[in-house]
Amino acid sequence: MNKKKIWLSSPHIGSSELRYVQEAFETNWIAPLGPHVNGFEEDIQNRVGVNHAAALSSGTSALHLALIPLGVESEDEVLCQSFTFSASANPIVYQGATPVFIDSESDTWNMDPSALEDAIVSRQALGKRIKAIIPVHLYGMPAKMDEIKFVAEKYGIPIIEDAAEALGSTLFDKNCGAFGEFAALSFNGNKIITTSGGGALLSNDEGAIQKARFLATQARDAAPHYQHSHIGYNYRLSNVLAGIGRGQMEALNDRVQARRANFNRYKEYFASVNSRGYKIEFQEELEGYFSNRWLTCILVDPELNKGISRESIRLALERENIEARPLWKPMHMQPIFKGSPFFGGKVAEKLFEIGLCLPSGSNLTDQDFDRIFNSLDSVFS
Q1: Neighbours of 22 (CB within 10 A)
Q2: Rounded to an integer, what is the distance from CA 315 to the centroid of its chain?
Q3: At 201, which helix (H) or strand (E)?
Q4: End of a domain among 221, 251, 281?
Q5: Cβ atoms of residues 236 and 31 within 8 Å
Q6: Domain count along the chain
Q7: What is residue 360's predicted lDDT score, i.e. its pLDDT?
Q8: How far apart are the C-alpha atoms of 375 and 6, rounded to whole Å?
Q9: CA quadruple 357, 183, 195, 88: dihedral positive or negative?
Q10: 351 is a domain residue
Q11: Which of these three, 190, 218, 251, is where a domain ends?
């Protein structure tokens, strides 16, 4: 008999979502835009603490629409965290610009402010135009935004926060997504809340958000006929999916609490493992940092763990139909970005080599954890 799949991070839907969706059907607001889109945008603004938000079809589209008002185009450069998902970097290429990848620091695993400044100095010395900086709050852990902002302001370069994984995370009580000129959120099916597929662009710049909404709806001019003076995109979130998002936002605090409880269960389990001579490490919070713990991630150095590697654990879980995944493969190591400029050392490469994401869904049950821990026992016994 096949065992039920335990996913890395599956959607967690409650009852409020259905209420909003039913309202959309009852009022016939099935068209792309409607009152739930407006309400969802207000929910996001209020939660993150920004003045404006545009609900979009993905986090990727949000990053893309952030680059356009900053004038990113061919022959420009954008400095991007290397240790991330490809969606952080792909929109740079959409605009014909060059991504310059920045290594991580070992505290938060996010963009290294020192390597960032090295990149700026080096690229500007070559006469390159640097139009933006994209740090990422990886797995929900806030980046060192104070240091990154200091460097960005020193050289007059705007920040686009990739907060796709970090809704509900804070840095000294300020929400991730409220530090840069722009920020992107993702509501993909595996995120801490979901709209099935979706995202949002955040900013305090009302004009920029209005332009984003215009571009996201095919850049249709104000005319009785279909007229277009700009290239547009089909990037808006539908009213039905926004209804799901409104219900999900009501449960966000509970979802964060559940994910953090998952992290604590893993911490307790591996404390026992480490007491037997192993050394499994975690992505830890610094003082003033609050992670939503979207995913619980561990580091498994074979040299410190009697030859056990992250693959030893991943494959043991896979045999029990339990999903785990290596940490992100850095962008400067990806075939598509071969030859792109990179600044830093080997931090991101090492994290990829020894890092593993464990099942972290907010709907994991005690029975699920029993299966996970039994599988891990088979590795460490």
Answers
A1: 11
A2: 25
A3: strand 199-203
A4: 251
A5: no
A6: 2
A7: 98
A8: 12
A9: negative
A10: yes
A11: 251
Q: Are 79 and 130 in contact (CB under 8 A)?
A: yes
Strands 289-290 and 170-171, bridge-based pairing: antiparallel
Q: What is the pLDDT of residues 142-195, one digit of tens each?
A: 999 999 999 999 999 999 999 999 999 999 999 999 999 999 999 999 999 999
Share of the chain above pLDDT 70, in %: 100
- Phi and psi dihedrals of 355, rounded to 5? -100, 150
pTM of the entire predicted model: 0.96
Chain Cα centroid distance, residue 332: 18
Q: Which residues of 247-277 are buried (b: 16+ CB within 10 A; e: fewer)?
A: bbbbbbeebbebbbebbebbeebbeebeeee
Whether residues 230 and 270 share a domain: the answer is no
Domain with residue 290: its CATH number is 3.90.1150.10
CA dist., res. 109 & res. 330, Å (int):
11
Query: What would the DSSP string read from start to end of 85-145?
Result: -GGGTHHHHHTT-EEEEEPBPTTTSSB-HHHHHHHHHHHHHTT-EEEEEE-B-GGGPPP-H
Residue 56, token pair as written in the block? 């979009």
- Give the Cα-Cα-Cα angle 364, 136, 212 (nearest 5 degrees): 105
- What domain range is 367 assigned to? 253-380
Residue 29 has pLDDT above 80, yes or no: no
Q: How far is residue 44's CA from residue 190's CA, in Å, rounded to a whole number? A: 18
Can you tell me the distance from the alpha carbon of 377 to that of 313, in angstroms, rounded to the nearest whole number? 10
Provide the phi-psi class of 75: left if phi over 0, else alpha when psi is between -120 and 50, else beta: left
10 in a structural domain: no
